[in-house]
Amino acid sequence: MSGPREADPESESLLLKRDGSSYTEEAAAAGGGGGGGGASGDLTEMDYVDADVSVLSQFHEDALAQAGFGLFQYFLFLVLGLGLAADSIEVFVIAYVLPSAERELCMDDARKGWLAAISFLGMMIGGLVWGNLGDKLGRRRTLVSALTTNAIFAVATAFMPTYGLLLLTRLGSGIGVGGSLPIVFTYYGEFLVKRHRGRHLSWLLTFWGIGGLFTALMAWLMITQPEAEGLGTRLSSWRVFLVVCSAPALLTVFGLFFLPESPRYLLECGQDVEAMYVYQKVFRINHKQSDEYPLSEMELPAVKGSIALTWTVAVCPPCLRASETVSCSKHSQRTLKQYKV
User: Fold this and answer.
1) Boundaries of every domain in the chain
2) CATH classification of 74-185+195-222+237-257 is 3.20.20.80, yes or no?
3) Is residue 151 within 8 Å of 87, Cβ to Cβ?
């Protein structure tokens, strides 16, 4: 028996063009309905609550499929992969500097343990703080701020003269790492159609290992070297090593300035025109300049109408009474069956 094969891009494109304007709650509910009982066309309150999510998901998938997969996603893959490698470097780097820092700062075993663990405490804090910001400020903006925080504190670590300040900068770097780690995968996944998503997110994870290899190579080349002159002071080799290891985070921040915000995030925020601009930009990068993006802002009113309907159902008294009637009726039926009445 032959395995599953991928859909033909041309046939998929024709299907999307044909159904491109059917982004309504009926179309969304059709995919999940199946063989449920009850009168045809009856919608419970959960059907209405999920309608906007289903419609946005359908439109987003179709718009990405029309934009295609190509040069844009490859560039995004490299930039975000570099950011993931930068996070990996900040996790591994402390193991290589501990022996040298121990002698210079006169650390005992307890202090070395805290210096090794403080980054993970920062990652926990960063995950909590930037996880919420990613849904409020946007994926790209939050990722830039998290990586910038990582880079600033990573560079500052190299110039800290005391153990307390070194501990503080490692905490700050860990906060930046904890903020960028989850957003890297979310941001990349929102530029991939469903059939590409799992495979490419797995490939992105290989940059974590690349970051570890880079750290080991730089440590082998630099930490055993004598002191270096810089910025009017003499820097130990392990401090120069820390500065070099902050470079991937800075390069990632630079690369992110050439990338747009996630279109899925823009749709969820109601910024439909901005989302269409992003889809069109991805299309122009992935296709010939003479080609024209098949979807336009004309598709969006149906989406917004569906979302408005959802809010109408949620707050209007007649609709509330209808949904309560459906809910109470189903609850009564379950109660009667339970007592065999």
Assistant:
1) 74-185+195-222+237-257, 259-288
2) no
3) no
